[in-house]
Amino acid sequence: MSFSDTELEYLSGQRLGRLATAQPDGTLQISPVGFRYNGATGTIDVAGRGMAASKKYRNVADNGQVAFVIDDFVSLQPWRPRCLEIRGGGEAIAEPTDSAWATDLTETGFDGAIIRIRPKRIISFGIGESGTDVYDYQVSKRTVG
């Protein structure tokens, strides 16, 4: 499995992340996106309104490189950020048969197309470290897949 149990718990409580894709000219595009962890495939499935027509979808279809970040704060006083960064390959899938969004599409109005992220590198900090001073956080870095 790519993600630790504490990372999976964190993923299940989050719904918004930032997806970075590479454009044909080499510049980067970053977009806030909705996501779901897909336990059946061990991937992150990103969906949204007009996904199949979006620039991020075309970028992924063109080169398949993505980085994805989910982050938040446990508290501001004391300063307690959490972050999960996923680097890997992306697939632009027009009509997935196994999307983690399958039951949510009708209520969201999304078109059904997804970007599927297959983790290759996972970096996390602050997840499952309650009571730990931010300067004592242990950063977890690992190559997977």
Describe the structure.
- This is Pyridoxamine 5'-phosphate oxidase family protein.
- InterPro entries: MSMEG_5819/OxyR (IPR024031), Pyridox_Oxase_N (IPR011576), Split_barrel_FMN-bd (IPR012349).
- It holds the Pfam family PNPOx_N.
- It comes from Kribbella voronezhensis.
- The chain has 145 residues and is mainly β.
- It has a single domain, classed as Roll (Pnp Oxidase, Chain A).
- It contains three helices and seven strands.
- It has a six-stranded antiparallel barrel.
Number of domains: 1
Give me the count of strands: 7
Write down the CATH class: Mainly Beta
Distance between the termini: 8 Å
Order of helices and strands: HEEEHEEHEE
Low-confidence sequence ranges: none
Number of helices: 3
Structural class: mainly beta
The best one-word shape is globular
At CATH's second level, what is the architecture?
Answer: Roll
Fill in the keyword field for this structure:
mainly beta; Pnp Oxidase, Chain A; globular
